[in-house]
Specification:
The chain has three helices and ten strands. It is of the alpha+beta class. Strands 1-2-3-4-5-6-7-8-9-10 form a ten-stranded antiparallel barrel. The termini are far apart. The mean pLDDT is 87.
Length: 198
């Protein structure tokens, strides 16, 4: 999980489609997902483990998540945020628990189970009071992630979600690409002038 969270660090453009099975309605939209991993010494580890009755010594760090508009820069809003704490299975690091300060389906602290398949697909299962949420996430490449999820109520599946996530370059990345392009242009211009003189 630590490797998965580290690979997920950054800002992702999330293209999302939600299908509500109870009234056969779809909704779609784009947003930014910001992921910031942290180590075991972060204050959130102790706070969330204590709230859920888990020994903080079993934790292995975690990550903060924010969902934002992708159309404008905004101050991060904790109403659209969550913190995950990783509690790996010491005997099998492909499995473990995720402690969340706020659940995805119901706004309460929850414990999810997770496991990685041999192909790298992460499956997380969260049991709420009246719902079960199942989410799968995997990398297509370093800069493309896929997520699918479903929410199952007592009377069956009520909602499914499909997301394609594209890593957004940082301002530093864009400036570096600009400098590379300018350098290539200078080299190309210099080469053309040399060939024209010979």
């Amino acid at each position: 999980m630590a490797e998965f969270l580290a690979a997920s660090q950054g800002i992702w453009l999330t293209r999302r489609v939600i299908h509500h099975l109870d009234h056969q309605d779809d909704e779609a939209g784009d947003s930014n997902l910001v992921i910031e991993p942290f180590g075991v010494n972060d204050d959130a580890v102790q706070t969330i483990c204590l709230a859920l009755g888990i020994n903080s010594e079993d934790a292995a760090g975690g990550a903060r998540f924010w969902w934002e508009s992708n159309l404008k820069e905004e101050v991060r809003n904790d109403d659209y945020a969550a913190v995950l704490i990783d509690v790996p299975n010491r005997e099998n690091p492909q499995q473990g628990f995720l402690l969340r300060d706020v659940g995805y389906v119901e706004k309460q602290s929850v414990i999810s189970t997770y496991s990685f398949a041999s192909d790298g697909v992460l499956t997380m299962t969260t049991r709420y009071d009246t719902n079960v949420g199942i989410e799968r996430c995997w990398f297509v490449s370093d800069n493309v992630r896929m997520r699918v999820s479903s929410v199952q109520c007592l009377d069956g599946v009520s909602m499914t979600t499909y997301c394609t996530e594209l890593r957004c370059p940082s301002n530093d990345d864009i400036l570096a690409l600009r400098e590379q392009s300018q350098d290539l242009l200078k080299v190309s211009t210099s080469t053309s002038e040399s060939e024209g003189q010979s």
